[in-house]
Amino acid sequence: MVSLTWPGALAWRLQRQLLEPVGSTSVVDVVATLGAVAAQLDPSSAELGLRTRLRSSAPGDVARALDEGRLVRTFAHRGAVHLMTPEHAAGTLALRAASRMWERPGWQSFYGLAPDDWPDLRAAVRAALTGGPLTRAELAAAVTAQPRFAHLVAAFTDPAATFLKPFAWQGDVSLGPARDGAMTLQRLDTRPGWPGLPDVEEAGPRAVEQYVRAYGPASEQNLAYWLVEGLGVRRTHVRRWVEACGDRLAAVDVEGEPRWVVRGDLDGLTAAGPSDAVRLLPRYDQWVLGPGTADAHVVPPDLRARVSRGADLVVHGGVVVGTWSVRGGTVGTSVDPGPVAADELDAEVARLAAVLGRPLERIEGTEGTEGTTS
Hints:
Radius of gyration: 22 Å
CATH topology of the domain at 100-187: Arc Repressor Mutant, subunit A
Largest sheet: 5 strands, mixed
Oligomer: single chain
Distance between the termini: 47 Å
CATH class of the domain at 100-187: Mainly Alpha
Shape: globular
Number of helices: 17
Strand order of the largest sheet: 10-11-12-13-14
């Protein structure tokens, strides 16, 4: 079995995720590489996380890709909003829909819907959206005009959007452009490039391989975090899909821990040495959300609370070492004593300024300003 070190493994992952060196492609390619990009709490942070992985980008690149159908914004892992390519979204949604949550007794009693009501309800939603995106209130008015669905007004307009998620998971809808700050929904099955939901047994092994390719070396717990906790997949299914990947995955040892990598990545991983790269990443970046904030190799336990609360991240060699925030024309950085030099932080602030399109000056300290990127 090949043995790896964590500094080398994280250096390889930085390269894979277009953080060192920074990529020269597009936001769509970055999303395809990361698999799914959290975009619920702060869409601007999601866009910053994509653009910081590119040498050249422009404001509005994500919106343009969504408008053209090259990206999809929908409810995915943990029911939260994510950006994905159509192909990756199709596989992810197929896995999430497989649980058929809407058929559980609690859902049936709470929403007053039997399983055989859903085909007609889904058809009514698609019909209402044929003319273009609608707000939740507009969609509710259109669908509940049918007497059998009249009791669902509150379900459609609930700010938590819980009731809307099964329509997304089954490939009926995705999120459209916000209108005056209000969420809109649009038909997904008629969007350009939408491939339709694949068979679960086709999507499962592909999801395993895609995750390991982006976030390897990956442990069984990493896969459980992404697929079991994130999409409601059974652990036994994940194990079966790992086996179905066969020789495409290779088992490795990372400082005594058994992990998987994509076999084609072995040479690059074994050749990778430690990285000194410093990166300023926005809150809830996929660098930490991909493996999970409980993965101590990326997020030290003493920093996990700050990361989980939405701190913007100072990353050195792939490990979170502090936080940063923007206030007006200054960037405050708070980094634990260690090998991160001031000139390295200054260089990253200059790169951040170029992405944001305004001059920024670094100062020490971010107390009370965590999660502030504007």
